[in-house]
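Submission sheet (multi-component)
Chains listed below:
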Amino acid sequence: MRPLRLLTLLLAAPLGAQAISVPATVDTLANGLTVIVHEDHSAPIVTVNTWYHVGSGSEKPGRTGFAHLFEHLMFMGSEHAEYPQFDRLLEAAGANNNGSTTEDRTNYYESGPRSALALMLWLDADRMGWLLPTMDSAKVDAQRDIVKNERRQSYENQPYGMVGDVMPTLMYPAGHPYSWTVIGSMADLSAASLEDVKEFFRTWYAPNNASIVIAGDVTRKDVLALVHKYFDAIPRGPAITYPTPSQPTLAKDTLVTLEDRVQLARLYYQFPTVRAWADDDAALEVAGQILSGSKNSRLTKRLQYDDQTAVFVYARPEAKKLAGDFGIVAQAKPGIALPVLQRAIDEELARLAADGPTAREMEQAHNSMESSFLSRIQTVGGKANQLNEYYYLTGTPDAFERDLDRLKAVTADDVKRVVTKYLLGPRAIVGVVPMGKTNLKAMPRVISGVN
Amino acid sequence: MNRILPLLALVVVACTRQPDGPVTEAPQLGEAPVLTLPTVDTARLDNGLTILTSRNAEVPMVSARLIIDGGARTAGAAPGLATFTAGMLDEGAAGKTGLELSEAVDFLGASLNTGAGWENVTISTSAPKRTFEQAMGLMADVVLRPTFASADVARERAAREAALLSAKDSPGQVANRVFYRNVYPAGHPYHVDMSGDVASTARLDSAAVRGFWTAASDPRHATLIVTGDVTAAEAKSWAQSAFGAWQAPSSEATKTPAADVAAAPSSATRIILVDKPGAAQSVIYIGAPGVARNTPDYAAIEVMNTILGGSFSSRLNDILREQRGYSYGAGSNFNWNPVAGPFTASSQVRTDVTDSSLAVFFHEFNRIRDEPVDTVELMRARNYLVLGALGDYETAGQVGGAISSALLFGMPLQQTADDLAAMGKVTAADVQRVAKQYLDPSKLTVVVVGDLSVIRPGIEALGLGPIEVQTY
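Outcome: structure written.
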């Protein structure tokens, strides 16, 4: 790791003496590819982290799960590095690699010794520029089967796994980019064709829709020379139109009960909030910390220590590019009915909204969050992915300090305000109960004057 | 005029740099970097506590982990008692409740974790440098002055009972537990999971926890590993303040030396089925008692396993996932421990190809014994292990982990470099030899958790061995 630039701030909370910076340069090739370099000479390793600015949110109707299926196809060989050379060449160089897909983006990384840098960039360039010449239906069929296995493993054969299918449909109106799961439906996966692959590649996998971060024991000069060598010949793609839906809200509580082959009932709450980096985003982060960030946080203390009705509880905001939500999940102790958990959670939310957090809670939350920032910048892999995320969401890769500053600026009143605004109102409720134990099921709230 | 030579020259240029087209040849790898192991400074307090310090000042944080030899293998400890006791340490100490401790830890921007493995109990903390000494004070509180209040024990016991119930939901956890209880006979430490079972959990109480900890908490058997933005002098001084008063117990905990634990007997290949009606996939878990970490064949076994199931391009993953599409992933592993852990190979496969997948596993077990691996495969596996290790010492946490791992096996850190050098020299003959010696398809235990009404006939038809249905 490279020594961080640490600035001493004179006016600061107990821990707040350090500003965090991960210096990075930004260059743009003629074809629109953004190249971000962070030098860190502390270990002889390098990471290449590429984000394509497309995720499941850009899928067409009837093709849910396609962005993720496409991610798998990016490992199936390209014109000059035919399958299965991608994985084999990297392993032979001591490097590992993977990719992941969310609603908003698809990322790919290779990590390994610095001696593998040119290989990593060449492989990434070849699949960015020349994926289609060797693509065929057999490859699509093969990865379709594997993705269906992934879906079985993570959803169908996973306790509580089917909640993931239901929740997006409760939170987002039909047609909203977040109203289906990233993994997609089995039927839509079956429908995906080679033509879909070609069209998706030509539309979204262009250099002008990607940013690539190279971080590690390298110099900017060497990196740029290699990037020019491998990526310059890739043509710019068509201009891209991104979806711009508004943040949906819920008019009333919606409730779904699922019976599953599980031993214990589990409650899921989800509230609409705001998109990433919107004004209330940071205050919701702090609220999450105060609700379940540690043992003595509000919900954990109440459900696990005072009432002892839950095995675990967590509250977590998830702010995405186009919209945000805030989830609360609690697993009931044996025999505990979900309305018992609901009542306690609602009481704690109401109490936090009415009184706000204490000064001590705020300080505790700030200090915890600051430390987790330090922890997150310990690896070049972690830094590279974060630089790409910041670039995508804010236009600046090194937004570490800005991100931490907005969290530090959150006041107790801010927390009180966002809990009141977002966490007391209508929510999507999914209750999972053991087969036949519908007596444990969650209940919609009875709101006086409304129901 | 010759047209040929200029054309040839053009082709040569095109291969290296073609302004309007792709670079068509894979680039050569650069010169491989050399692994530099972290340096470790050793000190000792009067009470016997060993302090190992390794400095890495790139992030202004310090991490410490206190390793106390003993763990779940401690003589006389009921299944689950060591891990439960470790979990109780931060549920109240030095007059603070668990919640107050948690608040104090968070206030310092620190983390504090407690846990146990087969061989030791570990208490770890991490904090910004400026609050680290206070964090170490809280760490000492939980080690030296835990409360173990009955009400707290009852609450955590109930939480553990609920977790044991939930384990039944996960086919992977069921397969794992059924595998261990069958492969390791009653009396062997690995027969019951280190988190215990329903019967042993019901017997956990404050007296049992206190009894275990009174004997286990012994500075003579403890090592404090401090890494990050810290000097050896600072580490020793802080450790003296926090742990200087730690006294050895009057009665010492004991443990059977790893080498004296009777090896689990091998049994002829058998199939154990666990029914999960309606399951979309079957969990396959195949293995046998393995070999201890101090085997001279360690390097060759690691290379062999990397080829068989230890990497994405390995044979098991390549065939079961990429070629056949039966699974999302498959792999194999030698579980390295002072007391030999098992060799296991596993995957989650589509229900209707459970029998075909089992056939692939056995075919590959035989193939790696019967045929020498080819050179490309061998070189790939060697480089993947040797060059991949260059990323293992990037963070203070990774360095602390490497030091504690060396401690666990009673080896110097330098052993890692020696092992890597040995891996770089493993031959195809070595791979075949260790496959024959440590992977015997006639002595495997196969556990399958899935929908028996669908999968049983096909498994029976394979004729791999006797079939038994068990419940969990």
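Remark: The mean pLDDT of chain A is 94.
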